[in-house]
Amino acid sequence: MPDRFAEIESFVTIAQSNNLSEAARRLGLSLAATSRRLSQLEQRLGVLLVRRNSRHFSLTDEGSLLYERAGHALTAIEEAETDLMRRSTEASGTLRIVTTIDAGRARLAPLFHEYALLHPDVTLHLETSDQPATSMIGSGHDIAICFDPPADSALMMKRLADNPRLLCAAPAYLDRRGRPSRTADLAGHNKIVVGASQGELWRRIMGGAAGWRLTLNTNDAELARAWALEGSGIGIKSLWDVQEDLENGRLEPVLPDLSLPPSTIAALYLPGQLNSPKVRSCLNFLARRLRGS
C-alpha cells in the first residue's frame, strides 16, 4: 500500500491530467495501479474525490477542495527543495557575522558591503561585540571575525591576514619625554597596554631592562588609542587602528625598525560550516581582500 504522500501526489497528478491514462503515464505506473491508488485514498478519507466512467472524468466538490490545498502544499515542497538544492551550490540566505566594534566600523563594514553587492541573494547581518568569539557560541552567528583569537576546540579557524603592529606615541609626548633610539630607552617611558597578551609582549621587548613598569592598562583597544593620542605614553597598536593617525601626524612610530609579531586576523566558525556556500564564499572573499589580492 502506498504511503499517504504518494497517494496525495498521485491524486494531484490525476486532477491535473484530467485523465487516468495520462496520469498513469506521468506517474510511471500502470493504469490499474493508478486507479488503485485513487481508490485507496478515497477509502481512507471516506469521500468520493473523482466521478469517473468510461467517458467522463470530473472532480467532486471534495476532490476540488483536496486538489486546491494539496496542490499548494506540493508546490511549496517542490519550491523548498529547489531552494535548498540551490543553496547547496550558490551563496544565498542570511549570513550572520559578529566582530569587534572598531574593526566592524572602520575596516570590515566596507568589505561586507562589497561582498553583498557581489552576492545579491545573501542577506548580510553584521553585529559587533567586545568578545566576538564568545558571542558566537550559541548565538546563531555563522562567522566571528577576531584579532589574535583564543584557542577554542569547539570552533574552527581560518587565518585571513596578518595585521602589522608597531610602537607609537603622540608627538607632544615624545617632545616632552624624548624619542627612544634603542629598546633600553623605553624603560623610562609610560607604557600603554591592552590586555595580558600585550603585557607579555612588552616584557619580551624590554628583555632584561631594569626598572621598567607598565603604566596604563586596559581591555579596550579604542581607549588605549585615545590615551596615546592624548600623550599619555607609548602604545603597541596594529596598523589598522592607527594608520590614519600616523598619516595625519597625530601619532608617530617609535623605534620603527623594531620588528613586532603581527596581530592575526582570523575567522572563527563551527565545524561543518565550510559546507555552506555563503560561509565559504565570504571567508574566501575576506581573505583575498585583506591580503590585498
TrEMBL record:
Keyword Transcription regulation (UniProt): yes
Molecular-function GO terms, alphabetical: DNA binding; DNA-binding transcription factor activity
Domain HTH lysR-type: 3-60
Pfam families named in the record: HTH_1, LysR_substrate
InterPro entries (UniProt xref): LysR-type_TF_proteobact-type, LysR_HTH_N, LysR_subst-bd, WH-like_DNA-bd_sf, WH_DNA-bd_sf
Annotated CDD domains: PBP2_CrgA_like
Keywords in alphabetical order: DNA-binding, Transcription, Transcription regulation
Family: Belongs to the LysR transcriptional regulatory family.
The protein's name: LysR family transcriptional regulator
Lineage: Bacteria, Pseudomonadati, Pseudomonadota, Alphaproteobacteria, Sphingomonadales
